Amino acid sequence: MELDVHNGHKGVIPLNHHPDFSEQGYQVISELGCNREGGRITYLANVLNSNQQVVIKEFCFARASADLSGVKAYQREIEILQQLNHSRIPRYIDSFEMPGVFYLVQEYKNAPSLGLKRSFHPEEIKQIALSILEILVYLQKQVSPIIHRDIKPENILVDEQLNAYLVDFGLARTQGAKIALSSFIAGTPGFIPPEEQFGHSLTKASDLYSLGATLICLLTNICSVEIGKLIDDNYRFNFQQLVPHISPRFESWLMKMVERNRKRRYANAAVALKVLKSIEVVGNATRIETLVSTIKSRKRATVLGLATVVTLAAVGAILMSCQPGDPVRQLLKARERQRFDPEFKCRVKGDLTFHVLWKS
Fold first, then answer.
1. Which of 90, 127, 210, 251 could disulfide-pair with 191, CB 3.0 to 4.6 Å?
2. In this predicted model, what pLDDT tens digit does every residue of 247-273 receive, in sequence order?
3. What class, spelled out in words, does domain 4-107 have in CATH?
4. pTM to 2 decimal places
5. Which of 4, 20, 150, 159 is catalytic?
């Protein structure tokens, strides 16, 4: 659900082009974002007779050629927002409709979108990640866990204190809810988890993939529409050469967030949050940890290789000791002989691998 987001009041258009919401108690100040093809426009407005500012989202179904499913999507977003109460999720305030058009009124957060071209230090990106993960923990702790389904830079606002706000719940679903076939791939390419693209059920790990992709965008300083350049044909991200200054542990954490197999990601936002808190995003200390990890990995590979060689040698020796013929037939005969010949059992007892083979 893409919106062309503008910064603050730079999107101001002549007053006579704004819709008149005076009867509903609002006065439009400016246009914040627009997706005319999708029939969506977002306005910044004042509440009449007060200093409160709100965001009014317009859903023009006639212009978008939408059917009843579009109306249901609008109503579903309202239902989800009404049950949420988090300081960094703009709260639902009001809704109203006009012929062919629906309007959703939400709390206004004075923070620009990450969809704007902005550069962040890796430490700042970690703070943004922690902030979003805290919101996801809240969503996943609901009686019916909520999956946002459209996490991307454009749907995250970040203020000067690096507090992140999650917006646009138009695609959100409760976990386990049936998703219409037409909305399976309704998110943004590059941020949609592989399981959704292939029609599998979504889990608490699904939003983690989208968040991981968002963080990679920030680290590499590329815009959302170009993220596909970092993904290969096997749905694996290749961004490491673009951010050599991050620590190996942070890189490993990111790669786990965007694992194509959801079962290999962190199980939920709470687990991902706990792990990230203890990670140094930059620094030399993690190089030692990486060296130790590499040594352990090589040691495991060496042990596995030796075990394989020993096993093959043992089996080869046993096969060679048998009479010529079909190896499978000879093994079956040897197994039958073992049942009745105690001495034969003693001869092979020393070969652990062979002994295990009998029991398999």
1. 210
2. 999 999 999 999 999 999 999 999 999
3. alpha beta
4. 0.73
5. 150
